[in-house]
Write a structure and sequence with these properties.
The chain is built from seven helices and no strands. By secondary structure, the protein is mainly α. The chain has one domain. Helix 5 packs parallel to helix 7. It starts with a helix and ends with a helix.
Length: 121
């Protein structure tokens, strides 16, 4: 069950959360991963996102809650987006996961969750 917080997220907020969780998945955010997240924001930022607050939330979120938050956010994004927007975000998600040229098993798991949740083949 999604929280009120997640239900109020915009597409940009949800996308940012998912991409940041992917970049945090292996325990450290690489500069190359951050560059992909910045590219996403440059393409989609609508001025309504408090980056400092969102980053603080994600950094404070216990690691054992990352997957649950990722799943809930992916489900929410699905309900507020169209197919093209989901394909765009999966493109950015794959870029984040491969940005350091080493997809870790947890990153692969999150990517698979995204594809399964959005029924992408």
């Amino acid at each position: 069950m999604q929280t009120q917080f997640i239900n109020k997220m915009s597409k940009v907020e949800a996308g940012f959360h998912m991409l940041m969780l992917l970049s945090l998945a292996d325990g450290k955010v690489q500069q190359s991963e951050s560059a992909v997240v910045i590219d996403f924001l440059n393409d989609h930022f609508d001025g309504q996102l408090d980056l400092i607050r969102e980053q603080a939330f994600l950094r404070a979120l216990p690691a054992e809650e990352h997957e649950k938050h990722f799943c809930e956010t992916a489900e929410h994004f699905y309900t507020i987006s169209n197919q093209d927007e989901r394909h765009t975000l999966t493109h950015f998600a794959m870029e984040v996961a491969m940005a350091d040229d080493d997809m870790q098993s947890i990153e692969n798991k999150l990517i698979n969750i995204l594809y399964d949740t959005w029924d992408i083949e």
